[in-house]
Amino acid sequence: MRLATLIGRLSRDPRKVVSFETLKGDASSRRYHRVVLEPGAFPTRLIVMELPADALKSDEATAGGPPQELPFLNVRRHLAAAGIRVPEVYLDAVDDGAVLLEDLGDETFARRIGTVGAAGMAAWYEAAVDLLAELHASMWPIPEVCVAAHRAFDVALLRWELDHYREWGAEALLGPLDPERRGRLDAAFDALAAEIALLPRGFVHRDYQSRNLMVTGDAPSPASLAVIDFQDALAGPRVYDLVALLNDSYVDVPFELQRHIVARYADRRGLDDAALAREFDLVTVQRKLKDGGRFVFIDRVKGNPSFLPFVDVSFGRVRAALGRLEGHEALKTALAETDPPRFG
């Protein structure tokens, strides 16, 4: 990636780079840099998304064939057309290994929640869920030309994510499971994946959580929020993004507020609140098992230990959801056998 060349393509008015900052990495294979240019034609600040060599490959497992276009650009275009605030693209330079984007600043939703405290939390989560309801309504059915229409949380993908937990959340920490425990866990995961695959479906951002919403205004409203990190979007359980928002690993949302936000979403979408609440707990088990295992994977394979403090947090979300679910005794037993101190 040659920054000077990219800047030259962006504007005929050549300007010097005043500052170049590589931003703190996340779990992605992409790298992000903040660039400030000397005064001149718009823009003077931008984000360079530096792409890996295999830019079309997702960091997450996906179902469906390889995309023909960078998924970030494809999904962004459809979200923008639906009226959702997403970063503006200044320059598509995928062939040169980069995309130049609008700089939305540093204030994530998680950071704003940390400043407003418990008293202001509800208003901001109401804003986030109102935006989510708008996003889901405008993106379902998913346009055929959107890459998300050709990827889905099917049984195979759900099952792969659960195996990701088994490999990294259980065996990497405890050692290989004996055949009997492995068999019980596999059977329970088969049943869980099959049940979730039959839930009502919708557009899924896949990681609609507090670090992937940027705060761009002072007042808590959908207009004060922008959505990022949507490149892994697909079709899946309609409740999935609600789980990501309310049971993310970085913000502790009180149970009463969770239920209020689920009910608010149900009202906005004309859905049955009780049915949605049960779907919420079921998908929480699957999502947070995967998250906990993923965080260990990111440490062991990618050499990034920054997510390790959230492993036990993620499994705590599983434990709470399991406690609210009726039945599923085989799953509860299999998880208790997998890690008694955490699930017992």
Give an overview in words.
48% of the residues lie in helices and 12% in strands. The protein contains eleven helices and nine strands. The strands form three sheets. The chain has a five-stranded antiparallel beta sheet, covered by helices on one side. A two-stranded antiparallel sheet has the order 6-9. A two-stranded antiparallel sheet has the order 7-8. The termini are far apart.
What is the structure about, briefly put?
By secondary structure, this protein is of the alpha+beta class. It folds into 2 domains: 3-102, 2-Layer Sandwich (Phosphorylase Kinase, domain 1), CATH 3.30.200; 109-343, Alpha-Beta Complex (Aminoglycoside 3'-phosphotransferase, Chain: A, domain 2), CATH 3.90.1200. The chain has helices at 3-10, 71-81, 109-138, 155-174, 179-197, 240-246, 255-269, 273-300, 311-324, 329-338, 340-343; strands spanning 17-22, 31-37, 45-50, 89-93, 98-102, 201-204, 213-215, 225-227, 234-237.
Tags for this model:
single chain, about 350 residues, alpha+beta, Phosphorylase Kinase, domain 1, Aminoglycoside 3'-phosphotransferase, Chain: A, domain 2, 5-stranded antiparallel β-sheet, two-stranded antiparallel sheet, globular
Topology:
Blueprint: H1 3-10, E1 17-22, E2 31-37, E3 45-50, H2 71-81, E4 89-93, E5 98-102, H3 109-138, H4 155-174, H5 179-197, E6 201-204, E7 213-215, E8 225-227, E9 234-237, H6 240-246, H7 255-269, H8 273-300, H9 311-324, H10 329-338, H11 340-343
Helix pairs in contact: 3-6, 3-7, 4-5, 4-8, 5-10, 6-8, 7-8, 8-9
Question: What's the count of strands?
Answer: 9
Q: What fold name stands as the CATH topology of the largest domain?
A: Aminoglycoside 3'-phosphotransferase, Chain: A, domain 2
CATH superfamily of the largest domain: Aminoglycoside phosphotransferase (APH), C-terminal lobe
Structural class: alpha+beta
Largest β-sheet summary: 5 strands, antiparallel
Helix content: 40-55%
Q: Choose one word for the global shape.
A: globular
CATH 2nd-level architecture of the largest domain: Alpha-Beta Complex
Radius of gyration computed on alpha carbons: 21 Å
Q: How many domains would you count in the coordinates? A: 2
First-last Cα distance: 50 Å
**Strands side by side in the biggest sheet:** 1-2-3-5-4
CATH level 1 class label of the largest domain: Alpha Beta
Average pLDDT for all residues: 93
Low-confidence stretches: none
| Number of contiguous helices | 11
Sequence of secondary-structure elements: HEEEHEEHHHEEEEHHHHHH
Question: What is the strand content?
Answer: 5-15%
